[in-house]
Amino acid sequence: MPLPTPTLTTDRLRLRPVTDSDADALYAMHSSAHVLRYWDSPPWTDRARADRFVAMSRTIEEEGTGARVAIDRSSDGAFVGWCGLFEWNPDFRSATLGYCLGEQMWGHGYATEAARALLGWGFETLPLNRVQSETDTRNAASARILEKLGFVHEGTLREDCVVNGDVSDSWVFGLLRRDWDALDQA
Fold this sequence. Notes:
The protein is of the alpha+beta class. Helix content is 31%, strand content 34%. It has helices at 23-30, 48-63, 110-125, 140-148, 177-185; strands at residues 8-9, 13-17, 67-73, 79-89, 94-101, 130-136, 152-163, 166-176. Helix 1 packs across helix 2. The radius of gyration is 16 Å and the shape is globular.
């Protein structure tokens, strides 16, 4: 069953479905070794990879397994990055949160703002009970984002990824509906 990708607005951002016109910006962001230094796959070297990303965004929507949104800055329409809820499992009422922002967009609170909006949509639209996210243990900035969103550090996956040829650990974070509801009411 399809899950229509939302269009959401925050004070500074517009979240919208990923489109073909995002491919160049996606390629520029995902081809940066610095942006992907903690990613579990290497930087893109083939522009066609961006087209596959856009197509997969549509597939996720059509299959009803999640929603991936492009993030634009409202003030000037600049592409900020993307955010997504993936692996929607109706049996377990769970999903996974992921995001990636261009380096020039770091440090402005955009990831937290976008993820908060998408999580709000997810908890309102889906009978979600749990959202999980993982980050490389060296990526303290991403861990801070998750903590600001109310995620709880639940453990460490030892040597679960190879990042740029180096074996790395990941932190697992979880956010439960009851925690989200408590934050939302505070």
